[in-house]
From TrEMBL:
One of its GO terms (molecular function) is butanol dehydrogenase (NAD+) activity. It comes from Deefgea piscis. SUPFAM superfamilies: Dehydroquinate synthase-like. Keywords: Oxidoreductase. This is Iron-containing alcohol dehydrogenase. Belongs to the iron-containing alcohol dehydrogenase family. Residues 189-380 form the Fe-containing alcohol dehydrogenase-like C-terminal domain. GO terms for cellular component: cytosol. InterPro entries: ADH_Fe/GldA, ADH_Fe_C, BDH-like. Residues 9-174 form the Alcohol dehydrogenase iron-type/glycerol dehydrogenase GldA domain. The keyword Nucleotide-binding does not apply.
């Protein structure tokens, strides 16, 4: 096991009616900027619950944060927050709203070029405190210190990480997810699945606890995924999905482990170039990457095949079957695994993604930093 340092200061309130706890979790003197995306929180009652919890606070709302939050929209919120002298961020939504909240929390007190926050190209001296009400389980952003921001005018989708943007608390009420459409549930399951494998399926590091955590998350997603799609009112399944998605990127799975993240690097480029949902890019890339890197990943693929998929046979056969089982699971969750399924030419996409990776200086990807843009091009060529 590799050396590691772990700290997560986010308080999690999980379960029925936990939104009401906002009233005591946010300091009474705070001036709150409430952030959300579209109108779904008005339709499912979450907005009303949040308003009730904030009735004794000063608060103002900013809506319209997109999936794959846009820098231009977020800067409107930054200017609004500054003008209104708001000093506490409450994000109500999924990973996109939460990622946007992290950027806004860092940008409001920032005195330089706010775009440089993205990509960790400028130091952060402070950030506003953040609270979260999670409505779409997928990214784990509600309790970690990473965010991904898009800037369409320059075709950039970049991440940043800073401990200053750890949420102070996260409300996880599974009943808030009961009205989600199947596409968003399928996306969330696959997103959480790939987050887990990016940290787990590299090469053996003798991190036995972390491996078992990862395998438990994967097995849970495999078990509850079909239930959440077929029976939206099954609270127990939604609760287990929500917690699995949180734990996939809470931080513990990856400590002491080699981590990959090449699938995400390529996926971000596909999203900004073609507008595909983030999880759908991951479903396309991950099986293809595993096949391309089969020799380097065989040991962990075999381990996953035996422990997670309960497969039998020789090591190579089990590893191959594990890839096939994962791909079929993605398809069963409603996510195709070929670019051609979206009428996207793989050769064109491969060239454009490789160019983007070079432009963003993503020249050495993967757990061994030996995956080049040309390798990524070769991986995408197999997804036609």
């Amino acid at each position: 096991m590799q050396n590691f340092s772990f700290h997560n200061p986010c308080r999690i309130e999980f379960g029925h009616d936990s939104i009401a706890k906002i009233s005591t979790l946010i300091p009474p003197q705070a001036r709150v900027l409430l952030l959300y995306g579209g109108g779904s929180i008005h339709r499912n009652g979450v907005y009303d619950q949040v308003c009730t919890a904030l009735k004794d606070h000063h608060w103002q709302a900013f809506s319209g944060i997109e999936a794959n939050p846009e820098y231009e929209t977020l800067m409107q919120a930054v200017r609004f927050g500054r003008e209104q002298q708001l000093d506490y961020i409450l994000a109500v939504g999924g990973g996109s709203v939460i990622d946007g909240a992290k950027f806004i929390a860092a940008a409001i007190p920032h005195t330089g070029d706010c775009w440089l926050i993205v990509g960790n190209r400028t130091p952060l001296l402070s950030a506003l405190p953040i609270g979260v009400v999670l409505t779409l389980p997928a990214t784990g952003s509600e309790s970690n210190f990473a965010a991904v921001i898009s800037r369409r005018e320059t075709n950039d989708k970049l991440s940043f990480k800073n401990p200053l943007v750890f949420p102070s608390f996260a409300i996880l009420d599974p009943s808030c997810t009961l009205s989600l459409p199947p596409q968003q549930i399928g996306n969330g399951i696959v997103d959480a699945f790939v987050h887990t494998t990016e940290q787990y399926l590299t090469y053996p590091c003798d991190a036995r606890v972390q491996d078992r955590l990862a395998e438990g998350i994967l097995q849970t997603l495999i078990e509850v995924g079909p239930i959440t799609l077929n029976d939206p009112n099954d609270y127990a399944a939604r609760a287990n999905m929500m917690w699995a998605a949180n734990q996939a990127l809470f931080g513990l799975v990856g400590v002491g482990q080699a981590q990959d993240w090449a699938t995400h690097a390529m996926g971000h480029e596909l999203t900004i170039l073609y507008g595909l949902d983030h999880a759908r890019t991951l479903a396309i890339i991950l099986p293809a990457l595993w096949r391309y890197r089969f020799a380097a990943k065989q040991a962990k693929l075999t381990q996953m095949g035996r422990r997670v998929w309960q497969l039998h046979g020789d090591d190579i056969s089990v590893a191959q079957q594990a890839i096939a089982a994962t791909e079929q699971f993605f398809i069963a969750m409603g996510l195709p695994t070929r670019l051609s399924d979206y009428q996207i030419d793989a050769a064109e996409a491969a060239d454009r993604v490789a160019e983007q990776l070079i432009r963003h200086n993503r020249l050495q990807l993967g757990e061994k930093t030996d995956l080049t843009p040309e390798d990524c091009r070769a991986i995408l060529l197999t997804t036609n």
